[in-house]
Specification:
Largest sheet of chain A: 2 strands, antiparallel
Number of strands of chain A: 2
Strand order of the largest sheet of chain A: 1-2
Oligomer: heterodimer
Radius of gyration of chain B: 20 Å
Helix content of chain A: over 70%
Structural class of chain B: mainly alpha
Helix content of chain B: 55-70%
Order of helices and strands of chain A: HHHHEEHHHHHHHH
Strand order of the largest sheet of chain B: 1-2
Shape of chain B: globular
Number of strands of chain B: 6
Chain lengths: 288, 353
């Protein structure tokens, strides 16, 4: 009984962690800054590759993972300053440009590094509850997803930078008039977003095959989570991941991966049909 | 009729344009006499793709719906043609009936998806994201249909290896069907393309097209003027998507093969690149630009597919950053301004004013 319950929780936690980790960076870039970053998957891929390269160069795994996140963040900041900056008032154009970047990044990686790259063995051992056994690394991922949620919340709600960032995104002109350095805020926020994408890749690096097109497998989940979450990402992303995680884990368990994937999308379309502003819009309406 | 063909929503009018168009048409008609049938076949292959670009141009350029779903409907149309054709057989007009049925299946799929998105008021960028997600999901689903249990009638879907074994199109004719292969297929696609192009010109210059442009410019204002924005958009979405399905069915007939890689990434990016590069606000620009890009892409692919895709990515990002209205439309505007000495552009910019 306990074992069955834990097994259900484990499957939910696995999906939840995947949704939160892949969506967190996008929640900042898309949800807060309004840039539709279709190259999000490629930043995740960047995190994976850097982690693997650093690990095989002899760094311990956690340090290699930190490298993955930092490198993705720095590349993101560079990209923001050079290309993304003129596109804040043109969301659809940002989508096209980042898609172009994603094509270039994927195919460039394919040319430079070939179609496969050495992977990393999954660390940690398995543990058993009752008659089932579970991977402890998946639990680490679940804990990491909670930490990321907490980090984003504290960063944007409890620090001076967070206040400045939210002010800038709400009203750039006014924030600038009050002395906020708009350019730096945008670059750093974008960098944090892509850094979180890199972190996602770094954390999942030991569990996946490394291929240049792997970013696409994160992209859809990331976008649907943010879309279902709604405009206020600090409020919406968590509940969205819980709801989608329950749906996905349930469908996976009963009908398999394919039905899970497609059922998730149908659920998303239905949720947007009923709650056009996502969970955060609904929550805001309920409380105000 | 002439007024509709030369109306305000399309570039290219007057005697000069139509003479040039007639000259191009004559070249296209006599061209198979001078090259071998393999080259004619590959030209027909280029033409197959243009329909989906024209469909996207209608939805995105004229109505403001950014759909990433063209390859979704390409896949639906292609697979539907294959499945129905394999089950019906080519005899007694079976192949042509399969084409019509495949388009009907695509229309139903587009109406369903479009209903949920458009009547759900999923607008702007969310429209792009949902169509994108649905497209990737279809590719994901088709990829894992390799097992023998995945079959419809006698047609095996075959997963990532792709479906094969369907016959090419055949035109029912007195005293035996005409197989549409090689040169015959080229003429069939060419005629189809001309008909679709002219019909689209008529459509966008008609009252319907003017409403579409009004919706693109300001959906709220169009609605307040009494137009049912959602119905217009849904009809447009179905027309544009069926054109995507037509591309898929023709492609499937051309190569007697279709695989999930035609649906997923990076294939899904291609129609968007073609239309954005050419200039989404005009069907003629889309037609010309798409043909140029496909021909260029094929020429490069012979050397390296990766580099060709990188070039597509650079073109997409570069066009949006430098000439957001598309290269061909921008060029046409430059020429028009020169001629009119500072007069207005032919096509107003689509950028936020």
């Amino acid at each position: 009984m306990v074992a069955d319950l834990f097994s259900d929780f484990y499957q939910f936690a696995d999906v939840f962690a995947f949704l939160i980790l892949s969506a967190a960076g996008l929640a900042i870039i898309f949800g807060m800054m309004g840039v539709i970053n279709l190259a999000h998957g490629e930043f995740i891929m960047c995190g994976v590759y850097v982690t693997s390269a650093a690990y095989h160069a002899g760094l311990p795994l956690p340090l290699a993972q930190a490298c993955g996140a930092v490198v993705a963040g720095l590349i993101g900041m560079l990209l923001e300053v050079t290309i993304i900056r003129p596109l804040y008032s043109r969301p659809l154009d940002s989508l096209l440009v980042t898609w172009g970047i994603s094509l270039v990044a994927t195919q460039g990686t394919l040319i430079a590094l070939g179609s496969t790259f050495p992977g990393i063995d999954t660390p940690g051992h398995s543990f058993s509850v009752g008659e089932y056994s579970f991977s402890s690394y998946r639990m680490v991922l679940f804990a990491a997803s909670l930490c990321v949620l907490g980090f984003v919340y504290v960063l944007f709600m409890r620090t001076r930078f967070g206040v400045h960032a939210r002010a800038t995104m709400q009203n750039p002109g006014m924030a600038q008039a009050l002395g906020v350095r708009k350019g730096i805020i945008y670059a750093v926020s974008f960098g944090i977003g892509t850094g979180l994408a890199g972190l996602c890749g770094a954390l999942y690096a030991p569990t996946m095959n490394l291929i240049p097109t792997m970013g696409a497998s994160f992209l859809v989940e990331a976008f649907v989570t943010v879309v279902v979450g709604g405009a206020n990402v600090l409020l919406g992303t968590g509940p969205a991941a819980i709801a989608l995680g329950v749906i996905r884990a349930g469908l996976n368990a009963w009908y398999g991966q394919v039905v899970g994937e497609i059922g998730l999308l149908i659920a998303v379309v239905l949720i947007i049909r009923v709650l056009p502003d996502g969970f955060s819009g609904w929550l805001t309406r309920r409380t105000s | 009729m002439t007024n509709l063909l030369n109306g305000p929503q399309t570039l290219g009018r007057g005697r000069a344009f139509w003479s040039a168009a007639a000259a191009v048409l004559v070249v296209a008609l006599v061209y198979p006499l001078f090259v071998d049938s393999y080259d004619v076949g590959s030209t027909a292959y280029f033409l197959c793709w243009v329909f989906m670009a024209l469909g996207l141009c209608l939805m995105w350029g004229y109505n403001g719906m950014m759909s990433f779903g063209q390859t979704f409907f390409f896949g639906v149309g292609g697979y539907a043609y294959g499945v129905i054709e394999i089950n019906l057989g080519v005899a007694n007009g079976g192949a042509m009936a399969s084409l019509v049925a495949a388009l009907a299946v695509t229309a139903v799929a587009a109406a369903l998806l479009g209903y949920f998105m458009i009547y759900g008021r999923i607008g702007g960028m969310f429209f792009g994201i949902v169509t994108f997600a649905v497209t990737l999901a279809l590719a994901f689903f088709l990829n894992q249909t390799a097992g023998p249990e995945w079959h419809i009638g006698t047609a095996r879907l075959n997963g990532f290896n792709g479906m094969q074994g369907m016959d090419p199109l055949a035109l029912p004719w007195f005293g035996g069907d005409i197989d549409l292969e090689g040169t015959a297929f080229y003429y069939f696609v060419l005629v189809l393309l001309i008909v679709v192009y002219l019909l689209l010109r008529l459509l966008v210059n008609s009252r319907f097209g003017n409403v579409l442009v009004a919706i693109r410019e300001d959906p709220l204002r169009a609605e307040l003027l009494g137009y049912d924005v959602r119905r217009y958009s849904l009809v447009t979405f179905v027309i544009g998507s069926v054109l995507g399905g037509l591309s898929g069915a023709l492609y499937c007939s051309w190569g007697q093969f279709i695989s999930p890689s035609s649906v997923g990434l990076p294939a899904a990016a291609m129609p968007v690149v073609w239309v954005a590069f050419s200039g989404r606000s005009d069907v003629t620009a889309t037609l010309i630009g798409t043909l140029l890009l496909i021909a260029g892409f094929q020429a490069l692919t012979i050397y390296s597919e990766q580099w060709a895709l990188i070039l597509m990515g650079v073109l997409l990002a570069g066009t949006v950053l430098i000439a957001p209205d598309g290269l061909i439309v921008s060029l046409a505007n430059v020429v028009a301004r020169r001629r009119a000495r500072g007069g207005a552009a032919l096509k107003p910019s689509l950028q936020e004013r």
